[in-house]
Amino acid sequence: MEDSIALLKKEFKRISEKGWIKSFYAGPGGGGLTFEKLLGKPIDQLDLPDYYGIEIKTHYYRGKYPITLFHASPDGPEPREIFRLTKKYGYPNCNVLSGSLTTLERRFIGRLYQYQLEVDCVRKRIYLCVYKKGVLIEKRSHWSFEWLKSRLYRKLKYLAFVELDYRKVNGEDYYKYNSIKFYELKSFDEFLLLIKNGDIEIKLNVDTFRSGKRLGQLHDHGSQFSLASQNLPKLFREI
Fold it and tell me: Is the dihedral of CA 89, 94, 97, 99 positive or negative?
């Protein structure tokens, strides 16, 4: 891993010395995708670290958005459990289920149902609890500790955190990569503690395709586990 870190440090220095760089991609994820392209990494959806065993996270240093750690949809009675939840408990008449959840409070998604996370250390699961008028009506959808632990260690054992600056010139996005820090994952127990304390949120993000061959079909963007950037040291130790 020392060789991988040294190589990424060298590549970061090369990229940062370019100053402002025009984005290769439109949209809010352009900073990260542009950085990866400058590293020579193609776009992929693989559940693996980005660069020789190191996961790369870029963050706008003035930004307030949390860092997405990874995506993991819940298990349950049906193979596509998140679709069952969307059809049964999502926004009425539009097949949408979108909102961020924690263990600390019940939150409405739509007008009828509230959601809250529950960490069950006996069954070794994180449950997605659904309430109506303050009454628990379902506790079936879940993420197993085993599955989350494998996901966490496969994807985030080592992390490079890149802070960037952003500006728009003549309608075009530009990025400047200012700093890089390297981290190592502390433990799965720390991860669970952050979920129990409400520091890690799970965002459900399901809607429908609005065009093309899949018009009207459900589209799962992935349930994302996220953490505020200032809380990274709670889950990782700096190298």
Answer: negative
Domains of the chain and any CATH numbers? 2-64+147-198+229-238 (3.40.210.20)
Q: What is the pTM of this model?
A: 0.90
Q: One-letter amino acid identity for 197? A: N
Quick: pLDDT tens for 137-160: 999 999 999 999 999 999 999 999
Q: Which of 95-99, 100-104, 170-174 has the highest mean pLDDT?
A: 100-104
